[in-house]
Write a structure and sequence with these properties.
single chain, 90 residues, alpha+beta, 2 helices, 29% helix, flat
């Protein structure tokens, strides 16, 4: 019974590790245009790089295209770019 419990606990720990991976590469990309579909679901998909691409998606379905209201993610931080740099590094 104890081996079974330890096995289940190990599987849960591995599953939590795989699901909770906070690496930036796993982040969702940011797109500037969102499609709001015309039905009552209120679904909004921000998956479009241009206004025309968004319009092509909703044509015939109904809805509207709006700019993404989430802020653009900040670029990578440059550490130390404001620090003094010696003229003759060692």
């Amino acid at each position: 019974m104890r081996k079974l419990l330890l096995g289940v606990l190990a599987l849960v720990a591995v599953g939590a590790t795989l699901v909770g991976d906070p690496r930036p590469s796993a982040a969702r990309p940011w797109y500037p245009w969102c499609a709001r579909f015309g039905d009552r679901s209120g679904v909004e998909e921000c998956l479009y790089t241009s206004f025309r691409q968004c319009q092509a998606t909703i044509s015939g379905i109904g809805g509207s295209c709006v700019e993404n209201w989430y802020p653009r993610p900040a670029g990578p931080r440059r550490h130390g770019h404001n620090r003094w740099w010696p003229v003759y590094p060692d």
